[in-house]
UniProtKB/TrEMBL annotation:
It comes from Sarocladium strictum. GO terms for molecular function: carboxylic ester hydrolase activity. The keyword Signal applies. GO terms for biological process: xylan catabolic process. The keyword Iron does not apply. This is Carboxylic ester hydrolase. NCBIfam families: esterase_phb.
Amino acid sequence: MVRFLGRMAVAGVVTASAALAQLQQVNNFGDTFGTQLTMEIYVPPNPAPSPAVVLALHPCGGSGSGYFGQTSGSYVPIADSIGAILIYPSSPKDFNCWDVHSSQSNTHDGGGDTQVLVSMVDYILNTYNGDPAKVFVTGSSSGCMMTNLISGVYPDVFAAASCYSGMPAGCLNAIGSSGSSPISADPACANGQVNKSGEEWAELVHKMYPGYTGDYPRMLTWHGTADNLILIPNLDEQLKMWSTLLGETFTEDRLNTPEAGYTWKVYGDGTRLVGVSAQGVGHTVPVHGQQDFEWFGLL
């Protein structure tokens, strides 16, 4: 009984922490290049002396504040406990989707959404003495598409990524899509009709940052088998891309991990690339905050 009451007390503190948490608007963080992106942040009551930074990217039709509301129950208590700063940007255009199709966004320092998002990260690093070795990115749906893309365009900024229900970096750009939203994009990528070898995907990514020879971020990517908006073949295409970029090969499936019906698809020793297939789950896979921050190496 005492142990049960103790757990209930902790749960109450966590719930209160998330409920009281608020975002701060940040203006003048850098050039927006006409993208119209805006920036909000969550700063914990006691930020670490050199805090980790997590960029959290909303789905289409969403907003930074909306995604904060969706994720704060798991992310805020963890951020509070380790003193990490969370960035919740917003995209107001193309059905509130991130631009993952344009050449500007698919090019390092190309003046697109990717560059503006990195300028938000730089603002936190400079203003709060953030740790440049502990910068991470996550997102859902369009946010996962951008997570894949920004990890390829700015691999030297992010140490690791975890995202939900997305598609490979550069897919929409490669097929000449005129938009990034369900109403503007060529549907071939979302429908799982764009199939490439790992080498072909990696070549697309290498062209995003010509001359880059360093490491790419560790990647954890989640997808539901019943997703009817961004179909499950996109999981395999992402894994082909990142296994080639990271130099990892498939090792094993771990069933019912981290919960029943989820399969942890392990590459190498499981520290640099994992794909998660969620049986019967639609769009999008629910955010797993504990696993995200464990993947980032912050827990």
